[in-house]
Every structure is written in structure tokens, then in C-alpha cells.
Write a structure and sequence with these properties.
The protein has about 280 residues and is of the alpha/beta class. It has one domain: TIM Barrel. About 40% of the residues lie in helices and about 15% in strands. The chain has nine helices and seven strands; from the N terminus they run E-H-E-H-E-H-H-E-H-H-E-H-E-H-H-E. Strands 1, 2, 3, 4, 5, 6 and 7 form a seven-stranded parallel beta sheet that branches. Strand 2, helix 2 and strand 3 form a beta-alpha-beta unit. Helix 1 runs parallel beside helix 2 and helix 5 runs parallel beside helix 6. The longest helix is centred in the middle third of the chain and has 18 residues.
């Protein structure tokens, strides 16, 4: 059985360098899908790039942790009106200090903004996987079932994935339980698993072989999503995070994303592998 593989680039629209890098990786034949942020400085430019590259599937990258919201959501923002950092959001959510109506309303607003830009989302995922937190998913659930055709599910499937590297067995089990809840409650098409070279760790050197071995390691059943972040030169992002409270962490991540860009814009990554490249349109 041939493996079906979606190669999805997150953060489309975050900044010009991010969007350009994603398009270059798509034009190189490696990225088949991306997810658009609709409340960031590069949103409009990204839409133009998507319109010029019709073979690229474009979903919504629902965002609760970067920049400013589209709606009035006091339980989701800091004193300056910016979204909370992921850790603060999840802690507040776990303590029951998030208003579910605000989460649902912001999701509706971001979906409406996506449509107003002239696009129809192939699917939905979220910035920093916040939709996988059960309290946030429950708030989003009615809107997801009504308006979203397919959904990314973060399920490690025995090869632990974390934003910054490998995760503990306990965290992996928690993700698997969350994935089962999300998949069952959503009820629509999803990926079978999610993998990324970031699970290999930020301190490990990446190459063509990193991607090839990762793809070869996954089971052939279902559709696997390979999550990528092919950021181009990225000086705009570096400037954006000049005064960020987690600047060093962000810069380390950006540097690894630039390495991803160099690899994903070269040739032959999936050559000879028994895979069929697709996007979320093919799941619906």
C-alpha cells in the first residue's frame, strides 16, 4: 500500500519571508498544503500568492497566541490587548478562566475573514496546536462541525512530536487521548497522524535523509501529515520579535525553519519513496 502524504506548511501570512518560503517549497514540488493566518501583517500578500498557485491547498491556521484578535476577547488577551503566549493560554484554559463564547466568536471571525479574502479553507489547524487542548476544542466544536470540512489532529502514533523536540511518554499519551476525543467529536475527515522533523530536536542536524527516514517510518494506513515550516531569509521575523519575552526561543526556531526552507526548495526529497502527495481537498 502506498503512503498518502500531505506536506503542510504552517504560518502562511505570518510575514513576507514565511509566505515566500512556503511558495518556493510548493513550487519545488514538496509542499502540497498550507494554512493561512488571517490576523497577521502578511495575510493579504499571502492571499495573492495563493491565488497565483492554485495547486496549493490552503486552510485556516486558527490563531489564539500571536498578535491581536479580530474580536473583543478579554479572557484571551494580556493587558496590552495581545493574545497570550501559549503557556499562559493553556494554564488559563485549564483553570476555567477562558470564556468559551470568546473562543467560538474569534473562530467565527477568523473563518469569516478567510472567506472575505476570497478563499475557501480546505481544512483547519491551529497555531501551536491550541485546538488540541480539550477545553479550547470544546469551545470550538460547534463552529468546527458547522463550518470546517477537515481538521488536523495532532496524534504522535508512537513517534512523539513536540514543537521544540521529542516529548515524554506521558505527554505522548496525553496527546493520543486528546486526539481520540477530537477525532470522535469532530466526526469529519482528519489526518491519521502528524509528523515533523522538529520532533528530532532543535539541536540535531537536518538533511534530505531526515525527511526521507521520517516518511519511511510511518505506517501506510490512513493519511499522514508532514508538518513543515520553510521560512525564507526571515529578517522581518527577527525584527518583529526584537522585544519578545521569549525572543531566544523564537530565534532558535526561526533558524531551524530556515534550514527547512533550504532543504524543501532543493530537489529529490521524496524521489523513489512509495508515497502519493496530496492535500486536505483529497480527504473531503
Amino acid at each position: 500500500m502506498r503512503r498518502r502524504l500531505i506536506v503542510n506548511a504552517d504560518d502562511f501570512g505570518l510575514a513576507s519571508s514565511v509566505s515566500q518560503g512556503i511558495i518556493e517549497a510548493h513550487q519545488a514540488g514538496h509542499v502540497t498544503s498550507t494554512t493561512l493566518m488571517v490576523n497577521t501583517p502578511g495575510t493579504v500578500e499571502a492571499v495573492g500568492l495563493a491565488e497565483a498557485n492554485q495547486g496549493l491547498g490552503v486552510g485556516l491556521h486558527f490563531n489564539l497566541t500571536e498578535g491581536r484578535p479580530l474580536t473583543d476577547v478579554p479572557s484571551l488577551v494580556d493587558a496590552q490587548g495581545n493574545f497570550l503566549l501559549r503557556g499562559s493560554l493553556l494554564r488559563r484554559s485549564a483553570l476555567g478562566r477562558i470564556d468559551p463564547a470568546e473562543v467560538a466568536g474569534e473562530l467565527e471571525a477568523q473563518l469569516n475573514r478567510f472567506s472575505d479574502l476570497g478563499l475557501k479553507p480546505t481544512h483547519l489547524d491551529s497555531h501551536e496546536h491550541v485546538h488540541m487542548a480539550p477545553p479550547l476544542f470544546r469551545a470550538m466544536e460547534p463552529v468546527l462541525r458547522d463550518r470546517v470540512s477537515a481538521l488536523r489532529v495532532v496524534e504522535p502514533d508512537g513517534i512523539g512530536i513536540g514543537a521544540g523536540g521529542p516529548i515524554s511518554r506521558g505527554r505522548e499519551l496525553a496527546l493520543q487521548l486528546s486526539a481520540r476525543l477530537v477525532r470522535r467529536r469532530f466526526g469529519g475527515p482528519t489526518n491519521a497522524r502528524l509528523v515533523s522533523v522538529h520532533q528530532l530536536g532543535l539541536n540535531r542536524a537536518w538533511s534530505h535523509d531526515s525527511y526521507r527516514s521520517l516518511v519511511e517510518s510511518v505506517p501506510a494506513n490512513g493519511v499522514t501529515e508532514l508538518m513543515v515550516h520553510p521560512f525564507a531569509e526571515a529578517s522581518d521575523l527577527v525584527a518583529r520579535y526584537a522585544n519578545d519575552p521569549i525572543r531566544d526561543t523564537r530565534l532558535a526556531f526561526i533558524e531551524k525553519c530556515r534550514i527547512e526552507h533550504r532543504i524543501l526548495t532543493s530537489s529529490g526529497i521524496f524521489e523513489g519513496l512509495d508515497v502519493v502527495l496530496c492535500n486536505y481537498r483529497d480527504l473531503v
